[in-house]
Design goal:
By secondary structure, the chain is α/β, with parallel strands linked by helices. It contains 16 helices and 14 strands. It binds pyridoxal-5'-phosphate. The site of pyridoxal-5'-phosphate has 18 residues, from helix 11.
Length: 408
């Protein structure tokens, strides 16, 4: 057990929002009162049974939870080793885990009397989830998106507009996710009174990393119970893909103190984790720095300039990683590996062919790592991989890489 958390890996962050050397709140003085108000209101909501009752009602009737824990029989037989289960969060409304967290933040925003929700989005998945929940509650929704991403992700831009959101293309910097995050923070300071900033992963200044983790932990809580119901015991290994790290933290958190459970996070290795930096593996290929209000492992050059990173999967294309992962990495409770584009593409196709499930490219990275380790493990070794998103959004990318002409 780590020295600063004598009995548990689950007690972080401390009251400064730090997980060991990571996290915290590196924000301007003007933002500080907003962050402190949010922290206070979240601390209150967290212990309010009424808040969680509202969450569970919407998780059940709007999102479709609990998501199944599915025994992937043909995948298991094909790999010939460990018994593979998939946590089916791709079956959620809007097709991924993002809505678990967005619902939590928007219910909190409503309780705080906020009527305007802002968000930043890269690939557009978090923007779509936010626009969805805003439509449901009749809230104004403004989504900041890098101008470059607006072009690359036209279908999600259109979805957000159909759902009533205003999408603002960000042209500052290089017009990508990092610049959209800065503009969202600026908007927040300017519109203090009525605005709530809804962050899409376990990043940002405290209390966001802990709050988003708490909302996503429904994944791990369900999986832990479902595995006990199915197999009468805990899994041996749990695996999830990492962009900012929210679906992974959601699966991992309820298992952190079950030290018999091996925990593996899978980063996007792009074209390979080497000096050319054509990857998004912040832990395996980056070093600590400050971005988006917290200290964590980041992709950066020798002068500390944040690098864009690259992955076939737009959702893994985040230059940092949530601070709790950085801490879990440094204390050795979780392992972090990387998977290349080519390996993920292979896993994507195998999942379609063997299980009748078209996975998103993000969880295809987690599945690719399962494919590496499962054959060498005994048949009674239980693996859970988080199927955090469905692949409908990715078929055009995959078609292009497989040389398939989609023009009709
Ligand atoms: C956004 C997204 C991710 C990456 O975000 P995390 O915070 O790391 O979970 C992964 N998978 C899917 C399907 C996504 O939409």
């Amino acid at each position: 057990m780590p020295e600063d958390h004598l009995n548990s890996y689950m007690t972080g962050p401390d009251d400064q929002g730090r997980f060991g050397l990571f996290g915290g709140r590196f924000v301007s003085e003007t933002l500080m009162p907003l962050i402190l108000e949010l922290e206070e209101r979240y601390e209150f909501a967290k212990t309010d049974p009424g808040f969680w009752a509202e969450m569970h009602d919407l998780w059940t009737h709007y999102v479709g939870r609990p998501s199944p824990l599915y025994h992937a029989e043909r995948m298991t037989a094909h790999l010939g080793g460990a018994k593979i289960y998939m946590k089916r969060d791709e079956l959620n409304h809007t097709g991924a885990h993002k809505i678990n967290n967005v619902l939590g933040q928007i219910i909190l925003a409503r309780r705080m009397g906020k009527t305007r929700i802002i968000a930043e989005t890269g690939a557009g998945q978090h923007g779509v989830a936010t626009a969805t929940v805003c439509a449901k509650f009749g809230l104004t929704c403004v989504v900041y998106m890098g101008a470059h991403d607006v072009e690359r992700q036209a279908p999600n831009v259109f979805r957000m507009r159909l759902l009533g959101a205003t999408v603002i293309p960000v042209t500052s910097g290089r017009g990508t996710l990092k610049d959209a995050m800065n503009d969202a923070l600026r908007d927040w300071v300017t519109n203090v009174r009525d605005t709530f900033y809804c962050i899409g992963t376990v990043a940002g200044p405290h209390p966001y990393p802990a709050m988003v983790r708490d909302f996503q932990s429904i994944i791990g809580k369900e999986a832990r119970q479902q595995m006990q119901d199915r197999e009468g015991r805990l899994p041996d290994t749990i695996i999830a893909a990492i962009g900012g790290g929210s679906n992974a933290m959601g699966l991992f958190y309820p298992f952190l103190d079950d030290t018999s459970v091996r925990i593996i996070g899978v980063e996007a290795g792009g074209k390979g984790v080497d000096a050319r930096m054509e990857h998004c593996a912040s832990l395996t290929g980056g070093r600590p720095g400050v971005l988006h209000g917290n200290r964590t492992y980041l992709l950066q050059d020798e002068d500390g300039q944040i690098l864009e990173g690259y992955s076939i999967s737009a959702g893994l294309d985040y230059p940092g990683i949530g601070p709790e992962h950085s801490w879990l990495h440094d204390v050795g409770r979780a392992e972090y590996v990387s998977i290349t584009d080519a390996e993920a593409l292979e896993a994507f196709q195998l999942c379609c062919a063997l299980e009748g499930i078209i996975p998103a490219l993000e969880p295809s990275h987690a599945l690719a790592h399962v494919m590496k380790i499962a054959p060498g493990l005994p048949k009674d070794h239980l693996i859970i991989m988080n199927m955090c998103g469905r692949g409908d959004k990715d078929i055009f990318t995959v078609a292009k890489h497989l040389g398939f002409d989609m023009k009709i």
